[in-house]
Amino acid sequence: MKYVLSAVAVSVLVACSPAQNDSSQTAETQQVEKQQAGSMQVKYPETRKGDTVDTYFDTKVKDPYRWLEDDRSAETEAWVEAQNEVTFNHLEKIPFRDKIEKRLTELWNYEKVSAPFKEGDYTYYYKNDGLQNQYVVYRKKNDSDEEEVFLDPNTFSEDGTTSLAQLTFSEDGKLAAYSISEGGSDWRKIIVIDAETKERLEDPLVDVKFSGISWKGNEGFYYSSYDKPEGSELSAKTDQHKLYYHELGTPQSDDELVFGGTDAQKHRYVGGYVTDDNQFLVISAANSTSGNKLFIKDLSKEDAPLVTVVDDYDSDVSVLDSEDGKLYIETNREAPNGRVVVVDAGAPQEANWSDLIPETEHVLNPTTGAGYIFAEYMVDAVSQVKQFDYQGKEIRQIDLPGVGSAGGFGGKDDAETLYYSFTNYSTPQTIYALNPDTGESTVYEESGADFDSSNYESKQVFYTSKDGTQVPMIITYKKGTELDGSNPTILYGYGGFNISLTPSFSIANAAWLEMGGVYAVANLRGGGEYGKAWHDAGTKMQKQNVFDDFIAAAEYLIDEDYTSKEKLAIRGGSNGGLLVGATMTQRPDLFAVALPAVGVLDMLRYHTFTAGAGWAYDYGTAEDSKEMFQYLLNYSPVHNVEQGVEYPATLITTGDHDDRVVPAHSFKFAAELQDKAGGDAPQLIRIETNAGHGAGTPVSKTIEQYSDIFGFTLYHMGYQSLPNE
Fold it and tell me: What percent of the chain has pLDDT over 90?
């Protein structure tokens, strides 16, 4: 407390004494910032206003930029080009942007290798030599050191925007099927090859979306898709998902419709997978991103019926494994933090379940490998891993190399070695080999990143949100950083869909830390860090809790002198883009910079695009009730931009091929901000062309994006040169 009072006293003296050197420097800085702002004044493209008005429960709501939802129109295309021209003209004037790009390129340029996995006679792994746009799949003959390229996605397209989405092998490893994404779209093609010769065996399957690829022996595989919608395939609504079986050597038009073709089986999300013993087909059916029905079919019996395991959407439930006629099921049914139960496959209903790994106070995420179940628990968003046998006996707790996130541990039943990765915000990912019989871990692949983790530290704090809830946040920065309120800080959050933000290393964030930045991640309600109750506390008419948690995190960082509002940026993507949009419109005074990425920003219409209606568990919809409509209207970012308000400098980012969260959300938000925002802070949108929601983005584009984001952020915090200079 003494230090805080002294710091305040000094600042008061400086402010009251214009003769002081510090004061003259402040005046000079202010003058530079004024000149800087003047030289970077933005003239926005004109955005036409339409006269569309919607009526919700007798309330009329204007939607002047409805025309921007048409992603196929020449007018929208021209608008995108005009916005990008203005945005890139602004970004190119930032004096240190090239330095950031150079350092990001240097940091990215090291060999990265995944954990290996065995299929048939080969050991496979993914590798990137440093700056390749896409990871390459390599393999070695078992017990051989000679590696060969199996699949090189960098050859799929000239610009690197066609990516490998999924790769699976038949039971004996002799056949492989892989899916590709073109331009970042969620629509996929599936290609089948002979794994030995790498030759294509048949025409690709097309128009596949939100799908796994699950082999049934060597005969064929299951996959999921929607009927191709009328209108734009990038934005038209898709709400009846179907599971198909493809028999090798037959045309796709002959594929068997397994589930989802009737009104009774109509669901937005349907998936099917075969258990490792090849005995059961497991089918999951859901209408939202939380809660699913579950069915099984015995593949060993001809014309076996579809058996219902769970017939409601009140819980998340999946089959973890099948062995000797028993099903091992992972669920949060009657167990908000998760449990593993075992049941006879002949009578798999809930009444017959018995706990194998009971629920604990920590959230459970189990995997199987080498004949064991590995239970990863989240303890305040940090990993703890325990090993169990199939009778539910705890064998040991795995000794992890530190405090952070561990992932992996999965493998075939006969695997002699399992692999897992370990990382945290300042430690690049290292892969470890685990002996499942002894529990001993050895380093398998150490990171080659040019980043000295020993110079940085992470601190977990718990702060108080508006309603008194304690919320965890991990703050990472260079050792020796003075907490004097002057540090450029990015506060990141998500807060939705039961997604947990656990510590992980990012090359981009490493560059931010090197530049003298502070990186803070808040584990907001709506996420999965503390189980179903924590998730539900940030959904529907409790969604404001998420925004309050984020605002409280920002206030904590300012109150504890990590930063100041002049040096604070907020960032989030997808549902996190909504988070940024809502908090910057609710508290525009609290941040210098806002960075909403691929955000859900029009809360009255999100459910009318692609599979957006499936997000209703978290958000509710404007059609649900008058109360739900009004609640959404009260925080919807597109509808809460006010005339003349000074909003933070904003860089909205999206992709023109994003068919998960359609770019119209970002387009309309940018148009509202450009039309109404007061002050000099720019309100810009950066639209990546031939790109989607993020997965599979080429490395070259990723480096460019982060160079722009960090350059924009620092420049609009008032920096003329990089902070570490």
Answer: 82
pTM for this prediction: 0.88
d(CA 653, CA 651): 6
657 catalytic, yes or no?
no
- Read off φ and ψ for residue 194, nearest 5 degrees: -75, 120
**Contact present, 310 and 317 (Cβ < 8 Å):** yes
6 falls in which pLDDT band (50, 70, 90)?
very low
Q: Which of 382, 534, 384 is nearest to 470 (CA)?
A: 534
Alpha-carbon gap, residue 316 to 617, rounded angstroms: 13
- List b or e across 98-123, with b for residues whose CB sees 16 or more CB atoms inside 10 angstroms: ebbbebbbebbbbebbbbbbbbbebb
Across 104-123, average pLDDT: 94
Q: How many CA atoms lie within 13 A of 435 on its CB side?
A: 6
Q: Encode pLDDT of 486-532 as tens digits.
A: 999 999 999 999 999 999 999 999 999 999 999 999 999 999 999 99
Those residues with Cβ within 8 angstroms of residue 574's Cβ, 6 or more apart along the chain or in another chain = 494, 597, 598, 599, 600, 660, 661, 693, 694
Q: Which of 607, 639, 693, 716 is catalytic?
A: 693
Shortest CA distance to 600 belongs to which of 502, 496, 510? Answer: 496
Q: Which residue among 179, 185, 421, 574 is the active-site one?
A: 574
Cα separation, 547 vs 524, whole angstroms: 8
In the sheet that holds 418-424, the strands lie side by side as 405-408, 418-424, 427-434, 441-445
Active site residue 241: no
